[in-house]
Write a structure and sequence with these properties.
There is one protein chain. By secondary structure, the protein is mostly beta strands. Helices cover 9% and strands 42% of the residues. The protein contains three helices and 20 strands. The chain is globular. Bound molecules: magnesium ion.
Length: 253
Amino acid sequence: MRIARYECEGRTRYGVVDPERGEILEIAGTPFDGVETTGDPRRIEEVRLLAPAVPGKIVAVGLNYKDHARELGMELPEEPLLFLKAPSALIGPGGEIVYPPQSRRVDYEAELAVVIGRVAKRVTEKDAAAHILGYTCINDVTARDLQQKDGQFARSKGFDTFAPLGPWIVTDFEPTEAPVRCLVNGEVRQDGNTREMIASVYRLVEYISSNMTLFPGDVIATGTPPGVGSLRVGDAVTVEVGGIGELANRVVA
Ligand code: MG
């Protein structure tokens, strides 16, 4: 099932996408309380898709693919390296990434995103799947020069619009072997696979939930494969995860 969040006639709601018919059916309430649809279907092009979750926090993982650590010239961490991205940085599919004047180098990072469905506190790897609502795409946009200058990640990864998320949450998705790609102006820049992750999705839920409680709607950005590079104003950037879909955004000044 594909769960989207969208705006239609001035109202924001969740819905179930039917890709074959090109339709979306409204969900009564939120998908965290069970999915019950209501009303008449809408054509998907009649609505505006939004970021499919409203996380209290976005927990991101640094250096979770060996070859990406190598390209940055960094040592592999002994345990997953966590940082937080500001929820105020979220934008949806089609939203604009604003290039901040403070930075001279803004990079894309294509990643698989996990959306939490049930409160998770000290959950084991074995039980992790039951706490996950589903999966979507995230672009962990990063002002690389400021990340290096600050030593901390809050500013460089927290600018407004630096967390494109979407296009929808796929609930029946196998996270252990999925292609993760980034295209800039149609050219493939990253072409990885989640099987190359150092810590699996389920291990990440165990590790993160042993440090902080995860709540419904919270998002985990699971790290980026090799091939990161910079964006320029005017670029069209697309994150693709096989089995989920495409998250397309444009960079503006
Ligand atoms: Mg990242």
